[in-house]
## 1
Amino acid sequence: MNERILSEDNQVVRRFFALDTQTYKDGALPARTKEMLGLVSSLVLRYDDCVTYHVVRCREEGVTDEEMLEVFAVGLVVGGSIVIPHLRRGVDFLDRIEGEGIHATKPEHSHT
Amino acid sequence: MNERILSEDNQVVRRFFALDTQTYKDGALPARTKEMLGLVSSLVLRYDDCVTYHVVRCREEGVTDEEMLEVFAVGLVVGGSIVIPHLRRGVDFLDRIEGEGIHATKPEHSHT
Amino acid sequence: MNERILSEDNQVVRRFFALDTQTYKDGALPARTKEMLGLVSSLVLRYDDCVTYHVVRCREEGVTDEEMLEVFAVGLVVGGSIVIPHLRRGVDFLDRIEGEGIHATKPEHSHT
Amino acid sequence: MNERILSEDNQVVRRFFALDTQTYKDGALPARTKEMLGLVSSLVLRYDDCVTYHVVRCREEGVTDEEMLEVFAVGLVVGGSIVIPHLRRGVDFLDRIEGEGIHATKPEHSHT
Amino acid sequence: MNERILSEDNQVVRRFFALDTQTYKDGALPARTKEMLGLVSSLVLRYDDCVTYHVVRCREEGVTDEEMLEVFAVGLVVGGSIVIPHLRRGVDFLDRIEGEGIHATKPEHSHT
Amino acid sequence: MNERILSEDNQVVRRFFALDTQTYKDGALPARTKEMLGLVSSLVLRYDDCVTYHVVRCREEGVTDEEMLEVFAVGLVVGGSIVIPHLRRGVDFLDRIEGEGIHATKPEHSHT
C-alpha cells in the first residue's frame, strides 16, 4: 500500500516518510538507543502497530529481555495503567518472535 | 506541596510516587538511558513540566547537546508539529541551565 | 445498536447524537469543508472508525484524491508518524470504495 | 467572554454548552458522583482548568478530603506519572479554597 | 501472559500491577464508585479493553443500566464524538453480559 | 530561539520545520482551507499556541467570524467539553486581533 501512497503526487507525505526513516539512523545516539526511544513513545501514545515494529527493531539491535522490560516499565509508569494491554501485547509479541525468528520487515518507510 | 500529598493517608498515591522514583534508577539500562526515555515520553505527551525535569536530569547524567537534540528529533517525528512549542521551550531551558548551572531539584518523588 | 442507546432514556446522549449530526450540515462553511475538518480531526486523534466514515462522506461531497491526500498530509505533519498506520488504512479504504462504490451508511446520528 | 461566544449565532456551540450543564445534574446518579466522574476525566485528560472547576464543585457537593484523594489516586494510576503535576495543582488548589472559601463561579455553561 | 510478565524480574512492573489492584478496593469511596471512575477514565482515554473490564466490574458492584448510561454520558460530553464508537461497544458488551452472565475474570492484576 | 534550534546541526529537526511550512501552501486545497484544517487539529489536540497561530493565519486568509466559529464547533463536538477553555481563548484572541490588527508573525518555520 505504500506504493499507492507514494505514487500519489504528494510531496509532503513522501518527505515525511523519508524523514521518519532518517530519524532512527545512527547519529550522536546509536540506532539501538533511538529504537528504544521509539518504543517507549509508541507505548505511551498507546499504538500497537508501532510497539511491535519497534520491539522487532530493538531486538535486531541487540536489546536484551531485561532492557526491553525496563523500557516497558518507563512507559507504564509515565503512561499509566491504560498502557497495560499494550505492554501485554508487546511482551506476547516478543515471545513469538523468539520462537519464530521474525524480522522487522522494513520496506522503505514502512513503520511508525 | 508534596508533604501535603504524602501526609494525607493515601497509600496508593504514596506508593506510586515511590515507584516513579524507582523507575529511573540504574538497572539493566543505565539511569542515563532511562532519563532519555522519560524525556521523549514527556515530549510526545506534550508536558513541559516533565520535559524540563528530564532535560535537567539528562544533563546531570552527561547527555550531550547533540544527543539531546536527537531525543527531541525522535519526539518531533513521532509526535508531530504539535510537539514544536515544547521542543522550543526544552531547548530554551537547556540554554538557561547552561548559563545558570541549574540542577534538578529532586526532593523525594518530585518529578513526573 | 443505536436503537438500544436511543431507547434508553438518556437525554444527554440523545441530544449529543443530534448535535453531532447538525454539526456537519451546510452553514457558513459547506458540508464539504466540514467533512474535511472532521476527517483531519479523526486522523490526529487517531481513530480509524471515524477516519473511514469521513473518507466516505468526503468522497460523497466530491473531494478529489489530490485534496484528500492533502488533508492526510496536514494530519500527518500535525500528528506525527504515529498517524501513519491510520493514513495507510484511510488510503486503503479509499481504494476499496473506488472499486466497490461504498456509500456512507448514515442511519440517524450514526457516526463519530 | 461567554457572552461573546453565545451572542454569535452558532447553535451547535450554544447547544453543546447547554448539554454540558445538563450532564452534571442529579439523575440516576447524584450530582456528587457525576462531579467526581468529571474530576477524574479532567485529571486523566490532564486539564488544569477543568480539574480546579470540578474540585470546587466536588467540595460544594460535600466530597471529603479522603474521597477527593481517592479520586486523584484513580486518575494517577490510570493516567500515569504524567498526571502528577495536575494532581499537585489540584491538591494545592484544594488547600487554598479551604482557607479562602472559594465557590465555583458558575455563570451559565461556564465550565468544562 | 501475566505470568510471563511477572516471572520476569522487573520489580517496577510487578509493583505497578499490585498498585493497580489496590486502587479499586473499598476505601473512603466504595469499590462501586471507584469502578465508575475507572470506567469514565477508560472512555475518555478511549480504550475498549478497559471499558469492557470496568463495565463488567460495575455490573458486579450493582451499577444499574441507568447509572451506567449516565457514566457513559459524562464520558461522551467530556471526551466528544470521538468517544461514540467506544460507547457503542460498551453498550453492546453490556447487552451481551446480560444474556450470558459474564463475570470479570480477575486473575491477580489483570485489568487496566 | 528558532535560530538556536536551526544552528544546531540536526538535519531531522530542520527538515521537519521546512516540511511544516510546506504543508500549508496552496495546492489541490487552497491555503485558506488548510489553515482551517490546522486550526481544528490544534483545537482537538488542545494546544493554545497553535490555536492562536492558526486563528491569525485563518484571518489573514479571509476566513470570516461565522466560518471560524463553525470550525470551532466541529472541534468542540469532536473533541468534547475538554476543548471549551481553548475555544474560549481562541474567541478571546480573535476579539483582540480585531481591535489591534495583529498579524501572524511568521519567521521561517515558526509555527505548529
Note: The longest helix of chain D spans residues 84-100.
## 2
Amino acid sequence: MLFGSIEAGGTKFVCAVGNENYEIIDSVHIPTTTPEETLHKCVEYFQKFPEIKAMGIASFGPIEVRIDNPKYGYITDTPKPNWSNTNFLGTMKKYFKIPMYWTTDVNGSAYGEYITSIKNHKPVRSLVYYTIGTGVGGGIVNNGHFLGYMGHPEMGHVRLKRAQGDENFKGLCPYHHDCLEGLAAGPTFDARTGKKGKDVPISDPVWDIEAFYIAQAAIQATLFIRPEKIIFGGGVVSEELLDKVRDQFSKLFNNYLSVGDLKHYITMPTVEDNGSATVGNFALALKQYYKENIVKI
Amino acid sequence: MLFGSIEAGGTKFVCAVGNENYEIIDSVHIPTTTPEETLHKCVEYFQKFPEIKAMGIASFGPIEVRIDNPKYGYITDTPKPNWSNTNFLGTMKKYFKIPMYWTTDVNGSAYGEYITSIKNHKPVRSLVYYTIGTGVGGGIVNNGHFLGYMGHPEMGHVRLKRAQGDENFKGLCPYHHDCLEGLAAGPTFDARTGKKGKDVPISDPVWDIEAFYIAQAAIQATLFIRPEKIIFGGGVVSEELLDKVRDQFSKLFNNYLSVGDLKHYITMPTVEDNGSATVGNFALALKQYYKENIVKI
C-alpha cells in the first residue's frame, strides 16, 4: 500500500510517497511561493501516483485542526505573506478522494519520532519535539495522541527569563517581540551578529544566550508534560548546541526532578536529514486509512 | 456507597467522607505536623467509617506517581521539613484494605473541576488548574486523564520574563530562586512589602507584578495544552486579581490564538471553599473502585 506525505514548510514543501514500512519510494522539493502555485505543484506531483491510498499533511501554521470548525484544514492567520486563510486540506481533497490526516509540521515530526521509537524497539510513550529554524514551533505526542482541544500547541511563543547581556535585544516576533521564537529563531543570529547562525562559531557567546533560552523551553516542557524525551530539530540545532543546552538545563533545573541521563533526554531527531515529519505523515496516513475504512465497512 | 478523601496540604489535611454524588457526609481538618502524627490522625478518622469502599488521596509533593516505581505512593524530596521520603499511600494501605487512588493535590483539584463541569452539563474536555498559595502548583486533566509519564506536572517551577520594577527581587524558591513559585507564591508579598498578601490593597502595584507573572503562566498553559479552561485557586487568588491577570494576558498574548471570552477561559474554581480536590478525590476513588473490582470479577 502506498501513502502520500506533504511536509509544508515556510521555505519549501517536501512531497513524498512511501510504503507501509514508512520507507520513501519517491520525493520532491517544491519551493514555497504563492498558495496557488505551490499547491498546484503538489497536486501535479501526486497525480503521478494514482495508487496512493491515503495522505498525511503536516503544515506550518497556525492551522485549524478542530474537525468541527468550518475552517478545518485551513492555514489561518499566519505572518507568512499570501498564506493566511488558505484552504490547504480542501484543495487537496478536491483532487484526491482518499483519507487525509491533517496536522502541524511539528506534530508530524513528533509523530515520526514516536513511530520510529517503536520501530527501533525503544518505545517512548510521551515526547516533545521542538523545531528551531526560521521560526520556533513545538509538537507533543502523549500516549500516541496529539495534545490540544482548542487547537494545536504553539510552544514557540512563551515568554522567558532574559539572558544576562541580552536585555537590550528587543526580539523579532511580530506578535510578542521577546517570546522564545523572537529570541531564539534563526534570524536572531543575523539580528544580533550580522551573520547567519551557521557562520557564527560555537565559541561565540551568542550561542550561550541561545542555549539559555532553549534550556528554559526544555524545562517548561519537562514541568508541563513530564515526557520521556525532548527532541530538538531544525536548522539552528547541532550536537554542540545541545551540549550547551544540557549544561544550562542542569544549572537552571537544579535537579528538581529526575529526568534521567540528559544525553538521552534532550536529543536531536532519530530520523536523519529532517525526515521525521515524512515518517510521521506516512504513519498518520495509515492510521487515517484504517479509521475511515473501518467506518465504511 | 461511601468514599474517603484526603487532601494533604502543607498547612492542613482535609479528610472527608462522601457519597456517589460526591456530596460530603462528614469532614475534619487536621493540622500538618509530623508525618507520624498527621497520618495517625487520618487513620483514626477513617476508622470511624468502616463502610468506606475506596479512597482518593491528593497530596502536596513532589510525590511518586509511577506505579512501577518502588517509591510509588511516597512523598519524595519535598522542601517541607520531616516529610521527605514519607510512605503516605503505604501507611494508609496498611490500615485500610480498599482501592486507593493516589495523585497530587492540584491534580485532585483539577479532576474535581473536570467532574463538576460534567455534573453541571458544561463539560470541559481539557483544563489546567493552578494553585497560588504557600507554593505554586499545577494540575492538568486532558480528556479525563492526567498528564505525565516521568511523573506529575510541576508547572510552578518555570522561569518567566521578569516584571519591570521587580528586577532586583531575588525570588524565594529554594531550588530556582526566581521561578513562578519563587516570584508569585504567597510569601513573596511578605518579602516584597513586609505585609501578608491579604493585607496589601489591590491598588498596590505589587499586584500588577503578581498578575504579570500569573498571566505568563496562563499563556504557557495555553500554548502547551490548548485547554478549554484555566482555573486559578489558592489563597492568593481573587476575582480582582484575575481581572488584572486577564488584562495582562491580553496585552502579552496579543490575540495570537483564539481562546474565547477571557472571563470564561481564566476563572476561579467552580467548587467553592477550596473544595475541588475533595470532589476530585471522591470521583477518583469511585474510578479506582470500579477498576480494581472489574479486575477481580
Note: The longest helix of chain A spans residues 276-296.
## 3
Amino acid sequence: MADPDKSSVTSGARRPGSRGREDRRAARRKRAPPGAPFIQRKIGCFDILSEEGLCLIENNADQILKEVGMEFRGDPEILAIFRAAGADVSGERVRCEPGMCRSIIRKSAPRSFMQQARNPSNAVKLGDGATVLCPVFGPPFIHNLDEGRRYATLRDFENLVKIHHMLPYLHHSGGVVCEPVDLPANKRHLDMLYAHIRLSDRPFFGALIGSERANDSVAMAKILFGADYVENNCCLYAVSNTNAPLVLDSAMSGALKVYAAHGQAVAVTPWTLAGAMSPCTVAGTLAQVLAECLAGLALVQLIRPGAPCLMGSFASTLSMQSGAPTFGSPESGKMVLAAGQFARRLGVPFHTVGALTSSKIPDGQAEQESAYGLLMSVLAGANFINHATGWLEGGLVAGYEKTIIDADLCGNVQSFAEGIDLSGNAQALDAIREVGPGAHFLGSSHTLRNFETAMYRPAAADNNSYEQWLAEGGFDSAQRANSIWKRLLRDYEQPALDPAVDEALRDYIARRKASMPDQNYY
Amino acid sequence: MADPDKSSVTSGARRPGSRGREDRRAARRKRAPPGAPFIQRKIGCFDILSEEGLCLIENNADQILKEVGMEFRGDPEILAIFRAAGADVSGERVRCEPGMCRSIIRKSAPRSFMQQARNPSNAVKLGDGATVLCPVFGPPFIHNLDEGRRYATLRDFENLVKIHHMLPYLHHSGGVVCEPVDLPANKRHLDMLYAHIRLSDRPFFGALIGSERANDSVAMAKILFGADYVENNCCLYAVSNTNAPLVLDSAMSGALKVYAAHGQAVAVTPWTLAGAMSPCTVAGTLAQVLAECLAGLALVQLIRPGAPCLMGSFASTLSMQSGAPTFGSPESGKMVLAAGQFARRLGVPFHTVGALTSSKIPDGQAEQESAYGLLMSVLAGANFINHATGWLEGGLVAGYEKTIIDADLCGNVQSFAEGIDLSGNAQALDAIREVGPGAHFLGSSHTLRNFETAMYRPAAADNNSYEQWLAEGGFDSAQRANSIWKRLLRDYEQPALDPAVDEALRDYIARRKASMPDQNYY
C-alpha cells in the first residue's frame, strides 16, 4: 500500500489540501488529453481462440502454403527472392515448407516501430499496445446531407483531410480519404500526397498501387523529411492487399517492394469476402488469411530484413443469398479477434479495419454495424485501424456526417482503452462516506473536484430532454453532424509548412505531371 | 486427433460421400437454430480488472458496508433479519462486517438455475454460460414512425409482447415492455401479467413494486403452473433496484421479500447514474454497486437460503455539463465488464442492461450507443440482459422500429457467442485446395454445401447495391423496420392456452380489480 493513490483505502486521517491537489493532478495524468497522438492501451485483448484452435489454424495455413502455395503474378524478381530463400517455385506459384515463412518473419520483423509525422508530436507508435485510428480509404463517392451521393473531387479530399485534422480522436491523416475523380487517375496520387502533407501534420499513407507511385511517395517524403531520415525512419504507411485467394499481383507487389526496400511500413492485408474470395466459414477464411500474410510478410523481410511491417486482415462476409458484401457480421467479429491473436503470436503489429457498413446513409444500420466493427477491432488489440470513420455503402462512399458520428466512437474507445483508474481519487471512498445513504453526489466535493474530466463527452450525441431536443429542431444525429463538420471546416487552420519544402514539393509534382500524359484509368 | 471433425487436417484420403453428410450434420448441429431458448456461450468473457483491482474494489465495498452501511427504509422485518444474522443495526441503517454478506451469499445462492415457461421448451437458464435477452422495461411512452412519440396504452403493450414473441433471437417476454397508462396505475400489473401469459409462451417478469403486486404475480403464476410447482421452481423473474446510494425502500424490498420467500428469481440491481447516485468515477461507482448488491443478495439468502438470485448492475453515466443521463459511454462499458467479474467471483449469475441510448429516435446515435452497450454486456458474460431491444430516450420511450433494429444485433451476438467452429467442414481445407489461387469460392462444392447456414442474416439491414436500394424506395433502417414490425403483427399467432387456466386467470384478475378502487398513482 505504498502507492499514495491508494492510501485512502487504509488511511483514516487525511490532509485535504495536499491530497486534493495531488488527486487532481493524478486525475489529469490518468486521462489522456484529446489529441493524444495514439491510444496507449491499458486493457487486454479478447482471445476468441484457444491454444488448440490457434495451433490448428496455424497448421492449416502452413499446409496451404506447402500444398497449394501462393502466386506472385507478373514479377519474376519476387520468384527469384523466394527461390533463393528455399521455397519451391513453379511457374508463378510459390510453395513453402511449414514454418519457413514464420521463421523468416520472426527473425527480423520489428515487434513495434514509430511512424513519423512532420509535427514530431504527432508521430504514431505501431505495436506495443498502441492503437492508431485512421479515416476511410478509397471511396469514389461522397455523401452529405446537402448534396446526397455524388462522385468525389479534390475539394472533397481536402475537406476530409481538414475535418479529420480537426478531430482530436483520430491519429492518422490516412491515404485516399476519397478518390478525387476530377483528376487524372495516373496523377492524382501526387495531389493527394500533397494535400496530406500541406493540410495536416499527422502521419499519412504512401500510394498503394504500382512501383511508380510508391517511388513518387518516397520521393515526396524525402523532400518533406530529408532523404537520409526517410531511409532510416518509417515516414510512410502502406497497405498491400493480396488478391485473395492466394495471389499477389504486380501492382500490389510493385509498391510493396519499393516500401520494403526503403524501410517504410507495409501492412500485408488479405481482403476477403468470405464465401467469394475465401471459404464461407470463419476457420477456413482464417487459415487462408494467415497463409497469405505469412507469404507477404516473409517477402517484406526477405527484401529488407528488419523493415517495418504489419500483419493485416480485412475479412468481411457476403450475403449468401444475394452475393452482396456484408459488414458488422458476427463472422467478421470472430475473424478479426482471431487474426489479432495470430499477429501477436507472429510477433508483428496488427492492422485491420474499423467502422464498416453496407448502409447507404448514416442511419441506425450504419452505426450498429460500424460500432460493432470498430469495437471488435479494438478488442482484437488492433494496432492500426483503417476506415475508423466515414465509411458507407461497402466502402464506395465517404460520408461527411458519418465521419463525425464515427469520430464520437473513436473518442469513446480511446477512453475505454485507458481501463479503470484505481487511484485514491477514483476510488472515491471519502465521497461515499461524505454523501451517505439516500443523498446525491452532484454537489459533493469529490464531484466538484472531478466533474470537468470525469466523463467522456461525444460531440454529435444529444442527451437532452425530449422537450429541449424538440425546441432545438428535433434533429437526428446526422443533422447534428452536418453542423459539426461545417464548423470544423470554418475553424480549420492550416499547420505551417516550411515554404522551401512547399516549393520543392510543388516543383516535384509539376515535373512529374509534365512527364506523362493524363490517363483516366490506373 | 481422434475427433472426426478435425481429421481432414491429417488425413490425405477422403470419403467425400460419408464425410459430406457428416459435415453437413455437424454444421447444422454447431449452429443454434433461430428460436434457441437462450444463448449458450462458447466464448469467454472480457476481464477489464486484474486480480489486484478486483480485490481493491471488493475491499472498498466491504469497507462501505462496515463504515457507512445500507439503509432499509420502512421495513422493520428486514432490520430484524439482519440483526439476527449478526449485522450492526442502528435505526434503519445496517452495517456489516467485511465478508459477512459474501459468506452468506456463497453459502446458499445457486450458481445457476432455470426459469420455467408455460412452453417448457422456452425455459431459460440463468448462469452457467447462458445469456438471456429480454425486451425494454418501463417506458411510459412509445415511438413509431407512423405516430411519433405518445403515451403508451395496453394496445401497445400487447403489440410489443406479440412482436417480441415473433422475434427468434429474444428469449424472454419481459415485464413492463411499456407502461399502459390508459389503465389505472394500481391495477395494470394484472393486465400486463395476463398479456404476457396469454400472448407469449416465453418466461416473464413478476411485478417489481410492492408486496401486494408481487403476491398477485405469484398467485397468477400458481394458476398457470400449479401452486406446488411454483413453490419448487423459478417461474417468475424480478429486479429489485436499490435506491442508490445505499438505500432499499419498502416498495422494492416488499416485492423482494415475496419473491425470495416463494423461491422466485430476484436480480438485486443497483441503478446508478455515476455523478448523481454514485461517485463520478468508475472505481467509486463499482465499490458502491458491489456493496449494495452484497447487502441485497444477503437479504435474499437470509429470507430463503437457496433462493435463485442474480447480482445486477445498471451503472450508467451523467453528462457532467447538463446533468442529463448518458448511455453507451466508455465509463458504462468499463463498469459492466467489471461488474460481471464481481458476479462471477461471488458465484451468482449476472444481470445487466443492453441496448440503451439517450437518442429520441432510432438514428445513428441510437444504434451506436445501443450496439456499444449490448456488446459490452455480452462481453461481460451477462446471464440476463434487460432492455436488449427497443429502448429510446433514456428509457422513457419504447420504440417499435428500434425494437426491430436492435433485434438484428441480438441475433448477431447469438451467432458471435457460438465462437469459432473448428470442425473439418469449417476448416475448409479441401475447398481451398479445390479453388486454388485467383479463383473464387462462390460455386465451390464447399460453398454449395454450406451456403444456407454459413452466415447470420439480419432482417432490417440492407446490403444491396445503391441502385437497387434506391429502386426499392431508398429507405433508412427505421423505415424498413416499420414494415417488419407490421408484418410480424400480421403473422403473429397466439400460442394456445388451456381455457380452464385462462378462465381462472380472468376470474382472479376480475376479483382483484373489484376489490379496490382505481388509482392513477402507484
Note: Chain B has 19 helices and 20 strands.
